[in-house]
Design a protein that fits this description.
By secondary structure, this protein is mainly beta. It has one domain: Sandwich (Jelly Rolls), CATH 2.60.120.560. It is built from two helices and 16 strands. A hairpin with a 7-residue loop joins strand 10 and strand 11. It starts with 9 loop residues before the first helix and ends with a strand.
Length: about 325
Amino acid sequence: MLKQFLPILLISILLSGCGLINQASPTLSEEAKMATRVGEILTSMPTATGQSGEGISTPSLPTVLPTATIGVPATSTSAPTATEAATATQSLEPTTSPEPSATSVPSQQPTVVYTPPASDPTTKLGAADWSDSMDNGNYWPTGADQFTDVAFANGSMGLTGLTTTDGWRMTYPELDNFYIETVFQVNDCSGADRYGIIARVPVLTSPDRGYMFGFTCDGKYSLRRWNASIGAKGEMVNLIDWKTSAAINTGSTQTNRMGLMAVGDRLILYANGQNIGEVKDNTFSKGYFGIFVGARETEDFSIRVDQIRVWENPEQ
């Protein structure tokens, strides 16, 4: 099980760039190997701020770093569509991709026998296995890039969309079956301005695919599957098309708790503790997660993220 990061050890971790919490100090040869590995990672990965980033480790996590934003371009400021696409390095015009049936079950992966909570999972799952109170940016890339700007202040993370394109920032840990809950505080917004969770991203240093669970300012939600490796322009598929839910608080200056549960091929959606939908898809079985924002209608649309909690293996 993952353990919540211990703030008292952050300084030593950041100075060393390697090493595991609750583990004896490594020998000189081990330190050299770790330093070499960290150097390789820093050389190969992109960053959002022009800096090398900050390393974080726990006994069950690899010594790699959060990565920069990669965006999904939008074609207009109207309601989101199912055909948005991009590559990892540039924005391209969207292509049309078939929209699967949300009720179909992939034949190659059996459905997990599990009854998800009809109401707030946090009342049934006990203590979280991983959490971030968002008091600082130790686990996130900060600063501005092409798509987003990130800054921490007053105990929360501010994420601003710099274009109509969806952009995201990634963090730890790698998960397969999980329940993630994120508390979003929405600033001034309108209509299709959107935000949410991206999860089961297979490669932390190349976050160009995964599931995107999002809310809009006017109270819609969707679940999309993004894969930049398909074709020349990538593929965006709506697993659940944008639809209105009374469970989502609408408008500016609102707070919403977004929850995403993944158990096998089942992806179960929650808004403020209410189960609002489910779909089955086995394209991505595990990966990393992050937060995305898209300023579809409001220039520099921004959100604040006050808390993220993760429960592993919620079906057990």
